[in-house]
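Obj: model holo form, ligand = GLP.
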Amino acid sequence: MKVIVCKDYEELCKKAADLIDNEVRANPETTLGLATGSSPVGMYKELARRCSEEGLDFSKVHSVNLDEYVGLPGTHDQSYRYFMDDNLFNHINIDKANTYVAKGIGDPETNLKEFNDVIDNSDVSIQVLGVGPDGHLAFNEPGDTLWDKAHMETLDQSTIEANARFFASIDDVPRTAFTMGMGQIMRARTLLMIMSNNKEEAAKQLLLGDKLDPHCPCTFMKMHRDAYVFLEKELADKIGYVG
Ligand code: GLP
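Output (holo structure tokens):
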């Protein structure tokens, strides 16, 4: 696992964007695995800037997203489809027909089957990841068991509370979500995790501990042969990470 400590968020976003930039220029038809959450927003902005100012061309790129709330249509401003359009796809020259976010409404079984089919037929080059305060990846919540494939998760109370900031009230936060499975995430060729400064507990387990712990799913990053973890010096200092 390569741990990249950056002086601030701006540097982090540039360095993380470099990985995607290099991949897209080398393989214009690449399939990217994308994530929502506030952590990658600055990197998405930097990619949009490079697209408009530096000729970074997404016209043939495909993408598949990690997760989606069950019950929210793509037009809902807190759905992950809306987030991706708003934070990235509307600002780059990607063909939206080549972007996939699981469907939050309709028959759950049909939606899950479609989600699994898309993932299993995609060869994801770089998978972008954030991490939940409880160490979750996508919506793979801590527990005794982690799952290989896409499935429906019941969100932990801490996840509902963490994500409530985006909704009018905590009661509006969906209680279930579709998520890519841990196995599918691990099959991406490269993992690119952005760990924001409030992820102290998860960062300690990932960067200071040696356990692969299903009660902190992000620790499975350690098993991947080409995983990058980007964090700011502020977080590294807070947990006493010295590299
Ligand atoms: C949600 C998403 C995760 C994301 C996490 C952290 O729970 N399902 O994929 O990593 O939020 O979000 P943030 O980057 O806003 O801290």
